[in-house]
Amino acid sequence: MTIPQDLRYTKEHEWISVDGDVATVGITAFAAEALGDVVFVELPEAGSEVSAGTPCGEIESTKSVSEIYAPVDGEVTEVNQAVVDNPESVNSDPYEQGWLFKVRFESMPELMDAAAYTALTQEG
Fold first, then answer.
1. Contact, 30 vs 24, CB < 8 A?
2. What CATH class is the domain 8-106?
């Protein structure tokens, strides 16, 4: 499983791509594989405020329901309606088409790089 080197990661298995003051958020391939077939995605509404480390949505699979945690404090600027309409894209393309939402943030917390995230996924 390839872990993109240019992203940042959380211990909740979310990835973050930063462009200026906007973070694009998704779940990692590791998380998508652990979840199994994703059948439903609930995302925060555009314009809503999210707080780092708190749940802001859900992903439901054939195996379980998992919360989506906000990786940063900020305002949701956009949600990926294509993922809501076609949740399986979280499994098939978690780093591109399967992104979840974008957040305008004021400060970026310390997040894991690809090497640290790889180590996390290899812990027993």
1. no
2. mainly beta
